[in-house]
Amino acid sequence: MRENRLRQIWKSGGAAVNGWLAIPNSFSAETMAHQGWDSLTIDLQHGVVDYQAMLTMLQAISTTATVPVVRVPWLEPGILMKSLDAGAYGVICPMVNTREDAQKLVAYTHYAPRGTRSFGPVRALLYGGADYPQHADDTIVTFAMIETAAALDNLDAILSVEGLDAIYIGPSDLSLALGCRPTFDDLDPKAAEAVDHILARAKAHGVVAGIHNGSPEAALARIARGFQFVTVSSDARLMAAGAQQVMARMRAGTAPAAGGSY
Fold first, then answer.
1. Sign of the CA dihedral with 225 first, then 230, 234, and 239 last
2. If you ran DSSP here, which 8-state letter would residue 173 be given?
3. Which of 93, 5, 78, 4 is nearest to 45 (CA)?
4. Which of 34, 46, 135, 197 is catalytic?
5. Gap between the Cα atoms of 32 and 26, Å rounded
6. Where in the chain are the domains?
7. Which of 33, 123, 236, 247 could form an SS bridge with 66, CB 3.0 to 4.6 Å?
8. How far is CA 151 from CA 86, 122, 186, 205, in A?
9. Which one-letter DSSP state was computed for residue 259?
10. Phi and psi of 209, rounded to 5°?
């Protein structure tokens, strides 16, 4: 079976740089994949992506060594299993609030006897290889999102679930849950303390910690603190930022001189 480079990076003590895909287009996904990201996450929760678009995006990512990941809309077995069957090598599940939630997530993403995943890896066999069924459970990466007050209260119980590979912090939802401003990088003190606490407990349990970031500077600072999976911006935000830079430069270059006119 094709190896999962995320596991290789983490085993060596490194951090994976993850890109984010909200645009439902295979060409934009392919373009992003060719820029050197360690992994790319297709966002089915807040991105404007449906299942069929996700499939073509997974195919586009497959033109590179970038690891394909999918954030599903919710803790629901059908979409988790279909995302894996389509060839996702990692799944990120939002709003995991209890140990029971984490147990369900692990069960839905693992075959029997370890879990309850239904068998039907239609495209995963093409991407992963003919021996996918024998090795999928030890290759796929399962992330639980920690982003609520309930998840904080149940953090150690969630992290102790066998088969949970990683957690992923959603800073904006976590901030809102704690009565703070929803943001990625410059967190209010209460939210920043919660992030530090989550990271420390993940390390204690031997679970990889990931987090969403708005800038490379924030991502690098979090890697230095021990995060091993950092997302930087998204395709839509990067496109908008690049266009803004071009237009700002063009407007500045074509502005009339003081007191003059076109």
1. positive
2. H
3. 93
4. 46
5. 10
6. 5-250
7. 33
8. 29, 34, 22, 15
9. T
10. -110, 130
Spatial distance between the Cα atoms of 91 and 120, rounded to a whole number of angstroms: 17
Is residue 198 within 8 A of residue 146, CB to CB? The reply is: yes
Q: Which two tokens stand for residue 185?
A: 């990088």
In the CATH scheme, what is the code of domain 5-250?
3.20.20.60
- Secondary structure of residue 20 in the 3-state scheme: strand
**Residues 185-206: tens digit of each pLDDT:** 999 999 999 999 999 999 999 9
Residue 34 falls in the annotated catalytic set:
no
Contact 121, 68 (CB under 8 A): no
First CA to last CA across the chain, in angstroms? 64
| Token duo for residue 161 | 């679930």
Pairing of strands 229-232, 90-93: unpaired
State how far the Cα of 88 lies from the Cα of 44, in Å rounded to an integer. Answer: 12
Both tokens of residue 213?
A: 């970031």
Q: Report the distance separating Cα 179 and Cα 80, nearest Å.
A: 31
pTM: 0.95
What is the tens place of the pLDDT at every residue in 207-218?
Answer: 999 999 999 999
Averaged confidence pLDDT in the chain: 96
